[in-house]
Design goal:
Elements lengths: L7 H18 L6 H20 L3 H15 L1 H9 L4 H29 L5 H21 L18 H13 L3 H43 L1
Helix pairs in contact: 1-3, 1-4, 2-3, 2-4, 2-5, 3-5, 3-7, 5-6, 5-7, 6-8, 7-8
């Protein structure tokens, strides 16, 4: 499995629980891919909890899914079972899990809150969540580290799910959706501008070299 970027919440909260759990599971027959599916199933239960009106349970399950999602990579390294397919499976299921959780929070908000534009906030939160992951997936592996610090890393998955947990537990889903919609889409725009400038500078620096080699 590919090494996953650890955001602030992952480093300081999630990993403190997922790493000991991974070491425990390393003594069993549990595989990394099974833990990937387990994290997805927990996300599905979070979605169902929101549908059933259980916002606190839904929020806690969303955070638990985030914690369990960190086990598969650690378990793969401990067992020497890293695989390209494992990383691919993890990425795909994470996207489905993200959509389910945000959609669940949106549906809960529609049923229990009376703010205007809930559907729009939910749509923008889902769109931003997908695009944050897509920009990271599409950027060259040589440049991916540029998204691991500063404002460009502000809307990482661990932060998003932690915010969902907080918003759901305190019963403020609408403002949570607006926050996620804002930070994800703003970070996507910032990444686009940053990479346009960064790659543009590199292209300009590379042109004299290529021209000189052609003249040689």
């Amino acid at each position: 499995m590919e090494t996953i970027y650890n955001g602030y919440v992952s480093r300081h909260i999630n990993r403190k629980m997922s790493e000991p759990m991974a070491r425990l599971l390393a003594r069993t027959k549990v595989t990394p891919n099974q833990m990937t599916w387990a994290a997805f199933c927990i996300a599905l239960m979070s979605f169902l909890s929101f549908i059933l009106g259980q916002n606190i349970i839904g929020g806690l399950l969303a955070q638990l899914s985030s914690i369990v999602d960190g086990i598969d990579g650690s378990l793969a390294r401990l067992k020497g079972m890293t695989s390209e397919f494992g990383g691919f499976l993890d990425s795909v299921l994470d996207r489905y899990a993200d959509i389910l959780i945000v959609l669940g929070l949106t549906l809960w908000s529609l049923s229990h809150e009376s703010y205007p534009g809930i559907w729009i906030a939910g749509f923008l939160a889902i769109a931003g969540t997908i695009c944050i992951s897509y920009t990271r997936a599409r950027v060259s592996p040589n440049h991916r580290h540029l998204f691991d610090k500063g404002l460009k890393s502000l809307a990482s998955r661990d932060i998003r799910l932690f915010l969902i947990m907080l918003g759901a537990v305190i019963g403020q889903a609408y403002f949570c959706l607006i926050t996620i919609a804002a930070i994800t889409n703003l970070v996507v725009i910032y990444r686009l501008i940053y990479m346009y400038r960064y790659l543009g500078q590199r292209d300009n620096q590379a042109k004299p070299i290529s021209q000189s080699s052609e003249n040689a």
